[in-house]
Input
Amino acid sequence: MSISLVSSLLSGIAGLTGTDPTRQNSPSAPDSAPTAVRSEVEEIRQKGLTEWAREQKMEALREKLRSEILSGKGLTEQGVAALPEDQGASIEDEIARLVRQKLEETLQQQMQDAVRSGKTQAVLLDIMV
Output
């Protein structure tokens, strides 16, 4: 089958289904999609799916750890916001330090697990949120 025949066949199918076969490998949100969806698709396009997914998992882990730390201290987001500025800043610094520490511990543990199991690929966090 020649390339022009395949091209015309795909164009005919696209006409029937209302899709453009040349755009299948390029992520894009329809113009009618909400702005947040379009901006997220653009972010994925710029960073690449793997990097975007890694960042999403890291952000989810940060949020989970922050929630656990606040809960452990008997605080809520509203409670921290209501604290005097110097106390709030102190709590935020402590939370940031603890989150960094826990992230490092988690990554270190996953790297050790990967070495023990003989994995040679990059370690990607698997978070149950």
